[in-house]
Amino acid sequence: MNRLVWLNRLRWVVLSSVMLLLILIPFLHLYQTYEAAHAYDLLTPGEKFIADSMETLTKPFVTDPAEDLNGLKGTTWSGKLFGLALSDPLSVVGQSAAGKTLYWPFIVTALIPVLLTVVFGRFFCGWICPATLLYELNDNLGAWLRRAGLPVSRRRLDRRLKYLVLAAGVVLSLFSGAVLFAAIYPPAIIGREIYYAIAVGGFGVGIVFFLLTLLFDLMVARRGFCRYVCPGGALYSLLGHFRLLRIQRKVTHCNDCAKCNVVCQFGLDPWHDDFGQECNNCTACIAVCPTDALKFEWRRFDAAFQGPGHLGHEYKKQ
Amino acid sequence: MQRRQFIQSLAVAGLSSLVSTETRAARSQPTLRFLRPPGALTESEFESRCIRCGQCGEVCPNRCINFFATENGLGSIDTPYIIPREQACILCMKCGEVCPSGALQKITREAGEIIHRVNMGKARVDEQLCLSFQGKTCGVCYRACPLQDIAIRTGMLEQPHVTEACVGCGLCERSCIQIPQAIRIIPQQTREGLS
């Protein structure tokens, strides 16, 4: 058993917690409105259940739910986490382009995510993004479908396509005066649609687009949207180009089994030391490695190809 | 549907999308009467500053803020709106406080500030429909108004007279007992379009 597999388990816990929070926040909002209305007796049994369960859940932490719970709002696109306002850097880029202004109170809310990305690279995509959870489950579904003999396409496109989407989005936002990224960015869509479904009364239009991206992943390219289209992924990759923390291969431990390449949903090549700015720190390669050859390391640049693994046949032949 | 008809309808849809946004907005105004939440910037500015995060709706204690699908054009998808007859704004000013992007301005919850800076629209009384103007004393709108005697005054038989101080929260329209309602908010973006 691999010693570092807990990293990937921890990642699943974080991803699930983010998703649970996104589901919890609309229910807390409903509870707040029930409290504000002072009309518990008029609630339907279903609404009473929501009010009761949310009350039990939050009672130890709040005195006045109508006010105190305002510190927990929004989504990963932009929201308040225990009073701290955080925004996706893409929302800031999109809004600055669409509004043709720099609104500083908003820009500072993206500061923490940007700093974390500069250090850890594209970690948002692997550890926070609520769409990632669904895309990874979708990828598992794809694997089952493949095993069942259905044609699940794994085409390779050009990774640089997403940078084009990012640039085109900025230009189109400039001309149209609307934050277009909000309509095509899966984490923004997911957060919003969960809220719509729970508290507003039904999904909005974004869910159609998201379902299409799931189909795209199954029918065109593995994790295709994140790898080739997502403008947020592109922005995070660029911000994390000089990331300080990188997954690296220890050539002395590697046995050339190539499991890492198979498991990498982003189609990277850990076996040949190719990580780059695209790696989202998902740690699947670390978890699958039978010899613990893959590890996080603090370094500015990826190592160049270090040759075949020292535990593999090819190296022994030499 | 015949293939030809289908292609024709596609062509019509394609052509109509080329019509300028102003024309389309003008055309849609009579049917789509909505308010932006209090403290919203002017319509075009609002659409470019709003990042569609939905927090204004999540913080609204009165659940009056709803979100557009495609009804108001592609530029308005997922932006917040209020239909006052369904649920009106209680001027709690929480949406402006939570808005991260400045599309809704932060306004303190004081009468002076609200009258000065909130501009969702203005109420207009249809005297043909209003009970008080038909000789049946009513006065419900006056009593629903959060800015009584400032935004709305009553005359003989409780006949309502809206003043320039009206901020357009819509509580009068929500409460009007006539069907259809005799007092309506003319939204700010419509007023801008008319002037």
Folded structure, characterized:
The complex is a heterodimer of chains A (318) and B (195). Chain A is mainly alpha-helical and 318 residues long. Chain A has 2 domains: 9-15 and 67-242, no CATH class; 245-317, Alpha-Beta Plaits, CATH 3.30.70. Chain A is built from 17 helices and 5 strands. The radius of gyration of chain A is 22 Å and the shape is globular. The mean pLDDT of chain A is 91. With 195 residues, chain B is of the alpha+beta class. Chain B has one domain (32-194). In chain B, the strands form 3 sheets. In chain B, strands 1-2 form a two-stranded antiparallel sheet. In chain B, a hairpin with a 5-residue loop joins strand 4 (152-154) and strand 5. Chain B is globular and about 60 Å long. Chain B starts with a helix and ends with a helix. Classes of the chains: A mainly alpha (318), B alpha+beta (195). Chains A and B meet through helix 1, strand 1, strand 2, helix 4 and helix 11 of A and helix 3, helix 4 and strand 1 of B.
pLDDT averaged over residues of chain A: 91
Radius of gyration of CA atoms of chain B, rounded to a whole number: 19 Å
What number of structural domains do the residues of chain B give? Answer: 1
Tell how many strands the DSSP assignment of chain A holds: 5
What is the structural class of chain B?
A: alpha+beta
- Strand order of the biggest β-sheet of chain B: 1-2
Shape annotation of chain A? globular
Series of secondary-structure elements of chain A, N-terminal to C-terminal = HHHEEEHHHHHHHHHHHEHHEH
Q: Major sheet of chain B: size, sense and barrel closure? A: 2 strands, antiparallel
Largest sheet of chain A: 3 strands, antiparallel
Strand content of chain B: 5-15%
Number of helices of chain B: 9
User: What would the average pLDDT of chain B be, to the nearest integer?
Assistant: 87
Query: Greatest interface and its residue counts?
Result: A-B, 45 and 31 residues
Give the number of helices of chain A.
17
Order of helices and strands of chain B: HHHHEEHHEHEEHEH
Shape of chain B: globular
User: How many domain units of chain A?
Assistant: 2
